[in-house]
């Protein structure tokens, strides 16, 4: 029969043993040290003036009274040291490190109450896609003394690292690196069809593929309009942002319908072979281009607030006798 217990190495009181109280008291001392185990520090050399009841974790290459006791626990009791070998699963509070550790059978390791769970849901349920889910009025990320960064990393250039904004779980806007290494802002009206509003290359070049911009012309050839007649546009050689040709104009060509309400800078150029006047007209307003001298081109600029495709078409009005050719207009949002 062993003289100590298996787990805590508490001494048994043997039959016919003298001074049984000594054995009993030693067992109480061990229980006193191991119950609610608190380890003062991890040392290789015994402290010069240890307090009664303190416990130390003996590290590698111990010296003095701890020689040969590496990996054991040293308890200070009655002016002497009691050594015990920790076992797998023992827990101890390391006071000098202010943390709880668990012995794995070889070393003490910090206890992680949370660990690395597959999902974390705060006031909601996380899933395999949204592994971190938070349901709250606001989510705060703040600094720890200086700055703070939110990092969104992707594996390869063709992957996506972005912020997605939704309405009723349907995407409406996205910003970040979506399918390339260019920073982009995309928008959608239905969550399925997306348009890129802005993209920035790694060299800093900025593109706005949906910015309203058009180059509209009357078409080739020579036009001899009657005084006071109206003429529209026939060709959109450059069309960005959704311009369209509307209903036909009596003097030829079609009205130009703008895609979105806003101020537009209009550059109208007319090449005239004889004197005449050119007006740019929209719903009762007009801009006078002035007299066109023979074989000269005159450009003028207008800033107008135009409405979207529900109305507000734009057309040219030509006044005076003469021959005009190559009518062209360029529009862009200012």
Describe the overall structure.
It is a single chain. The strands form seven sheets. Strands 16, 17, 19, 22, 25 and 27 form a six-stranded antiparallel sheet that branches. The chain has one helix spanning 20-34, and strands at 38-39, 41-43, 55-58, 73-77, 80-84, 91-94, 99-103, 108-110, 120-122, 132-134, 160-167, 170-178, 183-188, 194-200, 206-207, 213-217, 222-223, 229-231, 235-240, 244-248, 254-257, 262-272, 277-282, 285-291, 296-306, 315-319, 324-333. It has three domains: 36-136, no CATH class; 157-209; 213-333, Sandwich (Jelly Rolls). Strand 13 and strand 14 form a beta hairpin. It starts with 19 loop residues before the first helix and ends with a strand. The chain is mostly beta strands and 334 residues long. The model is unreliable at 289-300, 309-313 and 315-327 (pLDDT under 50).
List key phrases describing it.
334 residues; five-stranded antiparallel sheet; rod-shaped; single chain; Jelly Rolls; six-stranded antiparallel sheet; mainly beta; 3 domains
Task: Indicate the topology.
Layout: H1 20-34, E1 38-39, E2 41-43, E3 55-58, E4 73-77, E5 80-84, E6 91-94, E7 99-103, E8 108-110, E9 120-122, E10 132-134, E11 160-167, E12 170-178, E13 183-188, E14 194-200, E15 206-207, E16 213-217, E17 222-223, E18 229-231, E19 235-240, E20 244-248, E21 254-257, E22 262-272, E23 277-282, E24 285-291, E25 296-306, E26 315-319, E27 324-333
Parallel strand pairs: 1-6, 2-3, 9-10
Antiparallel strand pairs: 3-4, 4-5, 6-7, 7-8, 11-12, 12-13, 13-14, 14-15, 16-19, 16-27, 17-27, 18-26, 20-21, 22-25, 22-27, 23-24, 23-26
């Amino acid at each position: 029969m062993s003289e100590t217990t298996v787990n805590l190495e508490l001494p048994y009181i043997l039959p016919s043993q003298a001074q049984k109280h000594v054995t009993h008291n030693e067992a109480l001392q061990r229980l006193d040290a191991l119950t609610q185990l608190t380890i003062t520090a991890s040392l290789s050399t015994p402290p010069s003036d240890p307090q009664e009841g303190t416990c130390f974790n003996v590290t590698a290459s111990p010296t003095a009274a701890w020689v040969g006791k590496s990996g054991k626990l040293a308890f200070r009791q009655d002016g002497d040291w009691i050594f015990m070998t920790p076992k797998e699963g023992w827990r101890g509070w390391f006071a000098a490190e202010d943390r709880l550790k668990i012995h794995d059978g070889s070393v003490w390791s910090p206890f992680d109450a949370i660990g690395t769970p597959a999902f974390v849901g705060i006031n909601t349920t996380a899933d395999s896609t949204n592994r971190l889910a938070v349901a709250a009025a606001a989510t705060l990320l703040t600094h720890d003394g200086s700055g703070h960064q939110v990092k969104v990393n992707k594996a390869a250039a063709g992957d996506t690292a972005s912020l997605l904004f939704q309405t009723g779980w349907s995407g409406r806007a996205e910003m970040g690196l979506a399918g390339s290494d260019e920073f982009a802002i995309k928008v959608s009206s239905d969550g399925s069809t997306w348009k890129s509003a802005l993209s920035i290359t790694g060299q800093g070049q900025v593109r706005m593929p949906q910015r309203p911009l058009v180059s509209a012309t009357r078409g080739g050839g020579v036009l001899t309009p009657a005084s006071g007649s109206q003429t529209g546009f026939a060709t959109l050689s450059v069309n960005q942002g959704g311009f369209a040709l509307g209903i036909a104009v009596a003097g030829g060509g079609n009205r130009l319908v703008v895609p979105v309400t806003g101020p537009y800078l209009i550059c109208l150029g007319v090449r005239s072979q004889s004197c005449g006047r050119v007006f740019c007209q929209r719903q009762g307003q007009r801009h006078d281009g002035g007299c066109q001298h023979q074989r000269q081109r005159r450009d003028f600029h207008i800033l107008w607030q135009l409405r979207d495709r529900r109305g507000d078409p734009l057309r040219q009005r030509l006044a005076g006798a003469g021959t005009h050719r190559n009518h062209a207009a360029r529009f862009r949002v200012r």
